[in-house]
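Task 17 of the worksheet. Students: predict the tertiary structure of the chain below and write it out as structure tokens. Keep your answer in the requested format; marks are given for formatting as well as content.
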Amino acid sequence: MRDSARYAWWLLIFLFTLLILGNITIFWKLFRTPETPGLNASNVQLGVEFQTRYALGLEQLGLGEAAFRITLDSVFKSLDEAFAPYEAAVYRAILESAFGVGDPKKTLQSLPDLPSERLTPNQRRWQAMRWQEAFTDPLKPDEVPAMLNALPDAPSRLAGQLLELALYQRAGDTAKANALRESLGRAAGWAIILFGAVIGTVSCAGIGGLIVLIIYLIRLPRLPARPAPDESPFVYDPLLWALAIFLLVMLNASALDPMLHGFGIDASNTIYLLAVLLPLMYLTSLQDEPGALGRIRWFEGAWWKQLGVGLAGYAAYVPFLGALLLVTVLVAPALPAEQTNPIGERAAGSQTALQWLWIFIQAAVLAPIIEEFVFRGVLFKVLWQRTGRVWLSAFVSGYLFAVIHPQFLGGIFPITVLGTLLALVYAHTRSLLPCIIIHALNNGLITLMLWSVAG
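Model answer:
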């Protein structure tokens, strides 16, 4: 077993080098391509969607005409930054018609001449004619479904929902329009409440985190040179196969996808479950190995103490998260758009309740468990035993933890800091439970925030 560990080292070096070089290649191409949209573009679009939902929520809850008008004005100002002129004009006309402000006919007059993100001039002129007909020609309630099918796709899912509302409103079907408005307003109200709850939770955690960091820096408890000081520096090397298995499954997802689809299996979920279960099965098999490797304990201490450490550890991370996200927001306009985390991308999209529950389980339960086992329980432990330097091992394992996440430019700094902090928590507690709690809180709250913003 230990003799084979050197192959795991070389395999991991190859896989991580491949990931790093692949990211560098992708982002170099993005920087060299002038027409690449900016990293900030998707954030601005999410902001437009959230502000539109906020306006719907204000209207539904009856929280004041002035606040509603201010929010709607802010949406109109943000449209030109979030979308190309053609798509911005279409979105503006839909909002004007749905909320009864402005003149959608006038807004659409210059539509054929406006540049678009994805349409050729001929497509633009033909689709502009369809949009103009939808907002000028007489319309009956029973003609609305046919009109919706004939129209091109709206700039966003929410715009499409508001378009349906606006067309029924134009057709004189007040009952249907009001039912759609009430449904959208109710959903928006709950999203706003959820967003406020997440922001409030994170803000309170941030205040507590500053206190935790001050106490930690004052006390600065000493850490041993190695997790198993009486054993060989190479004793934990066989654990690396668990991380290698995890990376091999995830990196071969594109190759496994068509194969599993051929058997009628949901490929994405199956691949993710394999990436979770196979490394855990391997780690379980090592419990009977002789020496220090067979005496591995993943969890130590009373559960309530581990829970307390987990909550304190998450609080300590929040000030770093806030500062690094601020840096990301400031530099985002200068960065090209890139890949995003697939779980976050799906959480922000249209999902059924069951699909969204599975996404949340993936992000807040399965990902924290397996990633803590393979990155803190394996990679950090092996590096710490090998080097005897806890801070260096924590940083290297934290950086490699960040490398496997697709949102490299937008998330490399926050995720590296998170991985480093999780490694230090594990070094102090010798338990993975606090790390899993911190990871789960981070992923869960971010997923809830994405859902509340994107509806």
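Marker's comment: The mean pLDDT is 84. DSSP finds 18 helices and no strands in the chain.
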